[in-house]
Amino acid sequence: MTSVDPEGAAAEQGLQTGDVVLDIGGKAVSNADDIREALIDAEAQGKHDVLMRVKTSQATKFVALPIG
User: How far from chain centre, in Å, is Cα 32?
Assistant: First the structure.
C-alpha cells in the first residue's frame, strides 16, 4: 500500500502504508489495478466486505475490509 487514509476502513483494520496485499477473496493480486478490479467485482456481486490476505512488516494476516 502506498497510502492509507487514516480515517478510512483500511486504517480501522490496522493496515498501514507499506503493507502488501497478496490476495482479495482468494484471488491473487499483484498491482493497484488488480486490487481495484477485485474490489469492483466484489461490489458488483453485492458483497459488503472482502477478505484480504495482507503481508505486514510483522506477519501475514487476513483482514475483512468493508466495501461500498
Answer: 10
